[in-house]
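Write out the 3D structure for:
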Amino acid sequence: MRQPFPHHKRVYSLQFAVALFMMAQLLLQPILLVTTPPVRALAAPHQEEEGDVVLPAPVQVYPDDGIRTTGRTHPPVGVPRLSWKPVAGATIYHVEISNTAGFSQVIAWAKTANTTYITYGALPNDTYYWRVRAGTTSTNWGEYSPVRTFTKDWTDNGTFVPQLVSPPDGSERAAFTNDDFTWQPFQGAARYRFEISTDPNFSNVIYSTITIKAGHTPTKRLANNLYYWRVTPIDARDRFGESSEVWSFQFNWKNQPVLLSPENNIDVAFIPRFSWTAVQSASKYELQISTQEDFGLPTTYQTTNTEYTPEKALSNDQDYYWRVKAIDAEKNSSPWSEVRQFRVRWNFQPTQLAPTNGVISQSHPFFAWTPIPGAEQYQVQVDET
């Protein structure tokens, strides 16, 4: 006898049949493709991607258009500090300076986060044009500002010049001391040119040097003459400013030596030691000795000391004249000293010591006498009468 079909198995079989029927229905229907339009983000006004913000042109603040700048008004070299108002959203600014209105030649420029700018390079006297634009960190630049100009004149039409201090105009000098020539420090000057000339137009400059100090001592000795001097400032780019006014000084090396010894109009027994006072800036001295008062045929000696003793003996019973002058390193001479006179009188007599007068001596007596300073030999005479 066949067993009856279980109830739960009949349920599963029915569910399976229904599922097969539905799958068949789906396979028989046409396939439909459904597409969804993409979602497009909306851009902010005037901006397609980050960094493409269109920035307005900066508003310039200083200097005013057409201003004239000098070393007085804009120290140190007459270049103004440029400034402008900040631009919203800007993180960087590009500023340019040119000597042409069309900016065909940009002589100074900078990219800066600040709203001010000054070029540290000294500019020559000229008319300059400047402009600025704002940008973002992605270097997206806005429009340039309007062009402004300024005219630089470092020396203010030649009225802004170094002021001389010493020596005063018309002074006299016999020698130069430390920093003898001085002037006031000048705004914007990196160095100075110091000049000395024999004419006020400086067509014959006999001494010129460059110094960073506001003072100088010439290293060259000058001959007695009238001289003129001036100072010219030089900026950091080796551009010369306007020269100072011209001052004069008289160089007069008139301090002749003062004779010390021998004294005037005396008799000397030996070659004297000549001495005299030192003269400032002298490198050597010249001594002249002559038998003629006008020094027609002098004997000349040169020494670096302030005393001298000739090696050659002088003639006895003879009048002599002597004088001294100083000579500097440039072979310039001081005036001669006064003239002094002396006479050589080498007339000393030995004093006899032995044998004594009238003494009876052996056949070979011993003769002795006192020495005479400067004597090289002696002559002994014996008379048998």
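Confidence is low (pLDDT under 50) at residues 1-48.
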